[in-house]
Amino acid sequence: MLTYQDTIVLQNIDRDTALALSYEAFTTLGYTGAFVNGDSILAFTQKKWKQIGEQVFVEYNEGNLIVTSSMINGEIINLKKKNRKNVADFMQAFNTASQQGTPENIEDKKAALILLKQENEKEEVVALQEAEEINKAMNLAGSNLYITYAIMAINIIVFGLMAFDGAGIFEPNGLVHLKWGSNYSPLTLSGDWWRLLTCTFIHFGIIHLAMNMYCLYTIGVYLEPMLGKIKYTAAYLCTGILASIVSLWWHTAPANSAGASGAVFGMYGLFLALLTTDLIPKSVRASLLQSIGIFIVFNLIYGMKGGVDNSAHVGGLVSGFAIGYLYVLSIRKERKGLKAAWVLPLVILGTVGGSYLYLSEHTASDTERTKILSELKESAYADNDKFDESYNKFIEHQTKAIQTLESTDFSPNVQGIKKLNDIALPEWDKAITLVMQMKQMNVSDAKHKKADAVLTYINLRKEEVNMFINILNNEAGASEKLIEIRKQIDETVGKING
Prior knowledge:
By secondary structure, the protein is α+β, with helices and mostly antiparallel strands. It is 68% helix and 6% strand. It has helices at residues 15-29, 82-100, 103-138, 146-164, 174-180, 185-188, 195-198, 206-227, 229-250, 261-275, 282-302, 310-335, 343-361, 366-379, 384-406, 414-438, 445-472, 478-497; strands at 3-9, 32-37, 40-44, 55-61, 64-70. The chain has a 5-stranded antiparallel beta sheet with strand order 1-5-4-3-2. A hairpin with a 2-residue loop joins strand 2 and strand 3. It is elongated, with a radius of gyration of 38 Å. The model has no long low-confidence stretch (mean pLDDT 87).
């Protein structure tokens, strides 16, 4: 905090008079929020925009008046030297008050200072009472955030392990997320029910993770102490699962969904429900309602853009709101010394039962599941991506060779033969070199078989080009051989695609 300090050496001025003159100086300068405490008095310079001004603190100490100005809005630099100016302004106003003040005026200021001190004491009592009321209702001083920290730690550890596995820190790899348990309907609806929960601990990039963890901490500060660890944990997990169910229901086409935001929205929905009751003191309810409302509206609007699973947000919000009202019943009874042991089992059984019913009535085909699991299995091999890149290069060679063949004039001419020899055949030779490298890569058996089929296909294509050259040379039987080769090419293409 940036500060500046100076001292006024008092000449025949006692403590009470010095503080009275200080109060007069604050009043003259238009400072606000004056507060008296023993040998000191503080106030704030005038507000600028929405920020409070600088804090000016005056303390009587053995015949001296120590004046300190502090910047309390988080500033890191003081280009305009505001603190020095504030101290100088105060010292000038203090000197003016001491020189021009009459004994009667000074006594009036002393009396005003006594009244101010009494008001400060009353305000302090009221503030303490409000703080006690808030603490009694929300238990903010009597609990820790172990569950919130544990959830955050799990998310961060999982993200680190996934990044090590190739998930990507900024650009996510969807296949790795599927392998770790993201919510994807062809898998979730064909037996992987556990994805409803595991997806809430998986994130698509570090920004996604950081935003969710910040929001979780912000709401956890209030909810974990107020609800207690068991209710808090149950609400977090249940809203996360229900958000995943809503995501499955909403998306007609499969969507690879993950993130803690569904559960986080659930906790905000739960807090919103609590804030609509008198369980939380009125003194803080309005400000909390405003901040929670702004968060919800902003994030729902932001979620309308592409790449954000807003359905999970809505699902978490609505389920959290409903669970919140069930918790209201429980909290009211507990505050009366009664038990409401049925509430927590109802929340858990309702979540599990509702999820079971949905999964029973909505299933995905085994064919699609098998295909995706096959892709996941292949993605585990070290050279899987390299193989796919090489295959794409093979396609480029194939395209150039076939375009050369198709653009050749097949009326008898030397130019056509030269074109096929100089362009088409060399492109197929380059493709052979590429495929021979693919055969040596660390990939699945299926991809090794694919490479074998591609090699057979290339050799057949080379024979096709040679048959066209024979046709241009008017060799007998070339056309019949070409028909047979093209049948073999079609069969091989079927194997490659299969």
